[in-house]
């Protein structure tokens, strides 16, 4: 069984519905849950963990993915479902860096046949997150640079 946690802002997209119906017609057991407000992603992951769901699909952008990751991190290690991604956001940083297709049918098909891999997450201030790029900012002294300089430096990824 796959639990598809879908950002509520994307629930009416016909391409997503068509992909789910197409895979269900091929006997895929996909259960859809839609988020409504902040915190729903975490709550739905905890619910899926209690119900023994083996794989979760995070359908949304980086914000939805972060909520789902925080829900997974809160589960006991042996009870964490695998995580798959349907990238529906603007940036989709993590999905892009993992070469996950952006077309809903292709991404959902991958969730059925793909192989899972361990990915590191980071914890800061009681929240978990993923990091897909390493950023390096160096200053020659401890004074803070002008604001425009900070923005420019923060936008340059480490080679």
CATH class label: Alpha Beta
**Topology, number of strands:** 6
Q: Which runs of at least 5 residues are low in confidence (pLDDT < 50)?
A: 132-159
The helical percent reads 25-40%
> SSE order in H/E notation?
EHEHEHEHHEEH
The CATH architecture: 3-Layer(aba) Sandwich
Mean pLDDT: 79
Please count the helical segments: 6
The helix/strand class is alpha/beta
Q: Quote the beta fraction.
A: 15-25%
Shape: globular
Largest sheet: 4 strands, parallel
Q: What is the radius of gyration computed over CA atoms, rounded to a whole number of angstroms?
A: 18 Å
CATH superfamily: Probable inorganic polyphosphate/atp-NAD kinase, domain 1
CATH topology title: Rossmann fold
Oligomer: single chain
**Span between termini:** 40 Å
Tally of individual domains: 1
Descriptive account of the structure:
The protein is built from six helices and six strands; from the N terminus they run βαβαβαβααββα. Strand 5 (122-124) and strand 6 (127-129) form a beta hairpin. The strands form two sheets. It has a four-stranded parallel sheet with strand order 2-1-3-4, with helices on both faces. The protein has a two-stranded antiparallel ribbon with strand order 5-6. With 159 residues, it is of the alpha/beta class. The chain starts with a strand and ends in a 5-residue tail after the last helix. It has one domain: 3-Layer(aba) Sandwich (Rossmann fold).
């Amino acid at each position: 069984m796959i639990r598809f946690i879908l950002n509520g802002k994307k629930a009416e997209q016909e391409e997503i519905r068509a992909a789910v119906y197409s895979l269900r017609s091929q006997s895929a057991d996909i259960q859809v849950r839609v988020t409504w407000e902040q915190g729903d992603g975490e709550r739905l992951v905890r619910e899926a963990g209690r119900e023994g769901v083996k794989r979760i699909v995070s359908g949304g952008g980086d914000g939805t993915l972060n909520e789902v990751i925080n829900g997974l991190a809160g589960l006991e290690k042996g009870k964490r479902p695998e995580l798959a991604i349907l990238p529906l956001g603007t940036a989709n940083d993590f999905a892009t860096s993992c070469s996950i297709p952006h077309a809903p049918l292709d991404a959902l098909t991958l969730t059925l046949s793909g192989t899972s891999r361990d990915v590191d997450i980071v914890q800061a201030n009681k929240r978990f997150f993923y990091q897909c790029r390493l950023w390096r900012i160096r200053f020659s002294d401890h004074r803070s640079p002008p604001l425009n300089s900070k923005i420019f430096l923060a936008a340059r990824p480490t080679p």
